[in-house]
Amino acid sequence: MSRTLMRAGAGLGVLGALAGAAAAYTARRLSGPTPAACRDETYIFTPFETNVPHEPLTFTARDGLALSGWWLPNPASQDVIIGCHGHRGKKADLLGIGSGLWRAGYNVLLFDFRGRGSSATSVCSLAYHEVADLLGAVDYARTRCPNAQIGVVGYSMGAAVALLAAADEPRIAAVVADSSFAVMRDVVNHAVASRRLPARAVVELADRWTERLYGYRFHSVRPIDQIAAIAPRPLLLIHGTADAMIPVEHAYQLHAATADAAELWIVPDAPHCGAYFVDRAAYVARVQRFFDHALRGQVVAAQT
After folding, report:
1. Phi-psi bin for 297: left (phi > 0), alpha (psi -120 to 50), beta?
2. Tens digit of pLDDT for each residue in 35-90?
3. For residue 71, what are the β-bridge partners?
4. Do residues 119 and 89 make contact, with C-beta atoms less than 8 angstroms apart?
5. Of 21, 59, 204, 268, whose CB neighbour count within 10 A is largest?
6. Structure confidence by residue, pLDDT tens digits, 218-242
7. What are the DSSP E strand ranges found in the chain?
């Protein structure tokens, strides 16, 4: 064998090893255990900081896993809003919108997805296993308010979970999905390519690792294929044009898949899940108006 061929073979071997290592890292980042430092709740904010009464609670996902949450009670109401945080987030991330909707007169349930925050340690995923968590939250909300009109507001992965769960659970009466992806594989491919890695090879290997270690394939998570089943229930899609993690094209794809039945709010220059921070008061007001109309049949004039 010539030295040139030997060098070429060695080079391919190195590239293959690098692709394999990158794939294993990608699979672990998507679905592996959440680092202990990210789960530490010693110094997190709670509804105490927003002057909202709350009850710590535990309930079970549809597959029996124990989940941790906060119930923000409004005894005069039967309507419930459930909040879904992002991929490696926790319930405290939703204190802003949760407190705002509580002040609007809703019962609010914020909870940690499996393997995050104070919920039970578990295999995670990117909106696959977590659907059972949201469905468990719906079940719990119905025990607190048996006649509840239930709305869900989700962010990033939590938004994708909200879309997937609502497609199969008719008790979810309305959804706000902020910064959701349309197709899991596409957003993973985007993340890998943005790091100048060989996306096709890394994503394919990461997909196989994910199936082997975490029990699902990337093609199993495609909100775009199920979003139409939410109709005729109201749906609000929110996305920022400066989203570098999940490009705004995902919002347009999701909207098109509803045959334009969903309401679409594109926020100029907002980064990933950043629409809330562009104008907190305006954001809460718009989401409140959406739920007031969807759950209570109230027609509220838009504020200018």
Report:
1. left
2. 877 778 888 899 999 999 999 999 999 999 999 999 999 999 999 999 999 999 99
3. 55, 109
4. no
5. 59
6. 999 999 999 999 999 999 999 999 9
7. 55-60, 66-72, 80-84, 107-111, 150-155, 172-178, 235-240, 263-267
- Across 61-149, the runs of DSSP E, i.e. the strands, are 66-72, 80-84, 107-111
pLDDT tens profile 23-45: 777 888 889 888 877 778 888 89
Contact 263, 235 (CB under 8 A): yes
Three-state DSSP class for residue 39 = helix
Query: Is the Cβ–Cβ distance between 291 and 263 less than 8 Å?
Result: no
Q: Which CATH number fits domain 44-183+223-296: 3.30.360.10, 3.50.50.60, 2.160.10.10, 3.40.50.1820?
A: 3.40.50.1820
Amino acid at 216: Y
- Dist CA 144 CA 140 (whole Å): 7
